[in-house]
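Entry for the shared binder. Reason: the reviewer on the internal report wants the predicted structure included alongside the sequence.
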Amino acid sequence: MPTMEVDGQMVSWEGKKTILQACNDANVPIPHYCYHAGLSIVASCRICLVEMESPDPKDPAKMVKLPKLTPSCQTPAVDRMKVTSKSPKAVANQKAVMEFLLINHPLDCPVCDQAGECYLQDYSFNYGRAESRFEEDKIKNPKKDIGLHVLLYSDRCILCTRCVRFTREISGSGELAVFGRGAREEIDVFPGKTVDNPLSANVIDICPVGALLDKDFLFSQRVWFLKSAASISPISSGGENIFIHHNHGRIYRIKPRFNADVNKWWISDEARYTWQFVHENRLHACHRMQYGSFVETSWERAYAQTTEDLQKAVRDNGPGSTAAVLSPFASTEEMFLHAKFARSIDPQAWLAVTPPRIDGQDQVFKNPATGAVTFTIRAEKAPNRRGAEKITAHFGGNACALEELAEKIKNKKVMAVLASADPLPGMDKPVLAAIGAAPTLIALTSRHTGLYEKAGLSMPTCTWAEKAGVYENCDGRIQAFQQAIDPLENCRSDGRIFWDLLAHEGTHSAAAVRHEMAAAGLADYANVAIPQVEKPLEVMEFSAL
């Protein structure tokens, strides 16, 4: 394995990499702005320049020191190379670059949403000068609304061109460009265009300063107050990896989490902004129908009525007269317990899965220059259809599509249904149309929905952000997600509800259910680990610099 020395530390790497790439992988800090691992290399910011010695091509035993500073983002790493980013010449360059970048930059860190995770702010402290020598008036530009989710503060832009390269190389939409010359050069949209492609908000993530900001997050929370939980998108069958940023029981934003095999550094705007249902229109108590109107009831009574209603249906109508409707928005652990409980009451209970919503065709994004696929937004919106299919196959016996279940209810063959409702607005309509006529309908739902209105008994459940578990994406990849916020008062996860109904000993947890699943023969879930919270690949630990 080739090895080089960087600022007195030995750095090894595999394959062909640049100096900066090898250092990033080894957590050896070299400052950089324009470089991003998912974009082309332009070497325009110049703050990553280093001094270096490398073996002489004519005489490998001899080391040759390059007379000029070299961009580490663009220079291939070579075995036995010696690199320094802390020499007097390299440090002088870093200070000069920072001074130039700050000439027209406004001193508005106290009101900037990027404060606390800003490359310019942290590099100014670590690599810049303690004072400014600029005495002239700064060039000022108004902020601009350039897209559905994006605001542009041109004053803060350092022209790293990450956003421009993203729209040209990843989304392929090319809305952004560099306009003007000299000190008047700036990032802007082409006339008549806006940044509204389905991946548009990724330009906010990759902006190293506060030039591109999220309208949805603007002035809502200081980033140093936010806590982070590793999760999976609940609105895509692709299984996009995300971070949930939250504080005091409320979600404030969703950010992409790097996964080289699934979504790389990016997420869709759909995955980023479809979380408001967590805090909207929520149920807060168990309700049962009494004399034509809903009355609140306790969890103990709700549990007892659930068991009694299902047992009564079996006694009065025989085996096979009950059904369990599993939701592909539930975790696999929850569906396992749901099916297990239904079969414990009625060994011939029917198992059905809510059909996932399909929105047209998959959206495939390609790099226009190379034709390489850069991202895919799946048309199928259920995050765990594969998990639902695996659970129904595991339990075997009576299983049917939702349409078949509707016929069985119509023909009075199924008299009682225990359904887990999909959490997103409008997603329960197919389920309601199929099972709304069931004589006994018990619903597990987080929201005031049509299914809730039809059910004789409803229990308030958690959303995906309030629980942990695993989803299996459309490619069969099993991925775990963490609980981000505490459940809403008096709400319980589907898994907790069925754990209690099955009278399991001990405290319910997703890990305990996966252990039970593995023991039951579902070996794929034996070693699924909840991911550790890590910073996104492009965010450096500035405190270590």
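Summary line for the report: The CA atoms of residues 309 and 440 lie 7 Å apart.
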